Amino acid sequence: MKLIKFFVMIVTLFSSLFCYAATKTEKQIVELKYEAKSNKPEKQKSTQKKSTQTGKKKTTAPAPQYNCKVDVESFLDLRANQQTLGATFNKPLISNDVSNWLETIRNDELIAKTKNWVGTKNLILKPQLKKLYSYAESMNIHGVVSMEIEFWIDGKQVKSIYYRGMGSKMNAWNALYEYGIALNYGVHEIAPKILADIKSTCAP
Amino acid sequence: MSFLKYVFVVLFITFLAGCVSGPKRTPFTNQTVSSINDVELYNLVVQDEIRPAINISNVSSGMIAGAGGGALPALIGGMIDSSINKNRVRDAQVAMETFYYNTEEFNFRDVMAKKINSSIAQSLPFNQSNQPAEAILLDDKAIESRIAKLAPGQALAFTSTFYSFIDNSKSLIIESAVFVFINNKKPTAKKTQPIFFNRYVAISPSYGNGGVHSMKLWSDSQSKLYRETIESLTKTLATLITDDMKAQKDKYCGKPVKARLAFMGNRNQAKATQIDHIDHLIRVQDGAGTLYAIPDIDVSIDPKAKPTKCS
């Protein structure tokens, strides 16, 4: 019984701390730091190892060719609400570095993945951020990112595509960085779609 | 009860007790209203857009079921693996893609600001019809700081509004909490107590079979149904607020009924008092004093209830 009482005290203490963290009355600065989704290389199969060991040459597939030279303009921040990224339980989520975060996305997800492309068409991408917010819901944190990208080829707009991503993670500590991670997950959701659209636009 | 279950019940109760306690309903009195000659308004809408009806996560539905066998597996499940909820979110998100695209430019804050400004102006000395709705949630410190600057006769009206889909996306719900403060903090008190507080909830009729089918209806014709429903519900909500501020009543008189009310994204049958009709909805008050406007299909006569004495 003593053990139970002790455990109850510990649980009460931790839950009180959680509630204190959730209701502490300070402005919350979210340091946004974009990190691209990690692509861990798959383990080589044992059969491949054997073939290498026996001296067979590795064959690498030729890199696909896309008929574009891609230029990516800086993001336009067109959010109706540029003051906050939403709120936690009773605190606003404020960020001062959305533009740096967008610049990293532009470099890591758009420029880096198309920089070696050569082609006859000049594709210019004009990305616009429309919404960016995060919120806690029961035991989870969600991050929503919506953007529109205009595709311009040789000076003419050929299409404009709307992308929307929602990242979710468990609210482990109600820590501010977790809200940033949820937003990054939102970008991870749409980044492959954007790349696929660029590739289809630049198909030879 | 196993040891683990006991611990989680305590955690669950403590969490609720610590985080979900709020102020009690406080109606205006003749005295409090007549003491106000100028109102400063802070009309908060935290959300940038409507939330999908996906908040029936393992944990929250467990909480609503109450502490006990139903809550515990849900709570533990929620702690161990949030991927179930994540997948639900993703599915709902896919279904709503078109809807969000169609409503990308729709500004709920503008709609709400007009209604709240008008409502407060009808009830209190307030004449700023163009005041926008705010996005920054004020923390306790900021609210106390604003209250401390109020001169005698001045009041701070603080409203906070949330909106989402509910009932598997068949309905829309808009909820506002309204506080009015004057600079009357007691030296020993941690926080200033409001001289007026209540919650107001407006729920739309149901459209479609739920899920993707309903979302398609909300999205069709450049989301015409959604825009019209928001317009209508915000108008009803504003009327609820105006009428309640003017009424200066704690509890309303009416027919005892059972009504499908809303709590944490779920609809539940609860005892309530049916007051009257408001627009095409029925106005009811729950036991805590919260005023609802809900479709008549969600209200039924409570045969066991005793008739209330009306003064």
Approximately how much beta-strand content do the residues of chain A carry? Answer: 25-35%
Give the DSSP E fraction of chain B (strand runs of 2 or more residues). 15-25%
Order of helices and strands of chain B: HHEHHHHHEEEHEEEEE
Report the C-alpha radius of gyration of chain A, rounded. Answer: 23 Å
Order of the strands making up the biggest sheet of chain B: 1-2-3-4-8-7-6-5-9
Q: Say how many strands of chain B there are.
A: 9
Regarding quaternary structure, how should these chains be classified?
heterodimer
Shape of chain B: globular
- Average pLDDT of chain B works out at 82
Alpha-carbon Rg of chain B, integer: 21 Å
State the end-to-end distance of chain A: 74 Å
Structural class of chain A: alpha/beta
Biggest sheet of chain B: strands, sense, closure? 9 strands, mixed
Number of strands of chain A: 8
Percent helix of chain B: 25-40%
The greatest inter-chain interface is formed by: A-B, 43 and 42 residues
Might you state the CATH topology name of the domain at 67-204 in chain A? Rossmann fold
Keywords:
heterodimer, A: about 200 residues, alpha/beta, Rossmann fold, six-stranded mixed sheet, two-stranded parallel ribbon, 4 helices, 8 strands, elongated, B: about 300 residues, alpha+beta, disordered N terminus
Q: Explain this structure to me?
A:
The complex is a heterodimer of chains A (204) and B (311). Chain A is an alpha/beta fold. Chain A has 4 helices and 8 strands; from the N terminus they run αβαββββαβββα. In chain A, strands 2, 3, 4, 6, 7 and 8 form a 6-stranded mixed beta sheet that branches. Mean pLDDT of chain B is 82; it is low at 1-21 and 55-82. In chain B, helix 1 packs across helix 4 (71-80), helix 5 (83-102) crosses helix 8 (212-247) and helix 6 (108-123) runs parallel beside helix 8. Chain B starts with a helix and ends in a 10-residue tail after the last strand. By secondary structure, chain B is α+β, with helices and mostly antiparallel strands. Chain B has a 9-stranded mixed beta sheet, with helices on one face. The A-B interface holds A 4, 7-8, 11-12, 15-16, 18-19, 22-23, 25-27, 79-81, 83-84, 86-87, 89-92, 94, 130-131, 133, 135, 137-140, 142, 144, 146, 162, 164, 166, 168-170 and B 3, 6-7, 10-11, 14-15, 18-19, 46-49, 51, 55, 57-60, 63, 78-79, 82, 85-86, 89-90, 93, 97, 100-101, 104, 107, 109, 135-142.
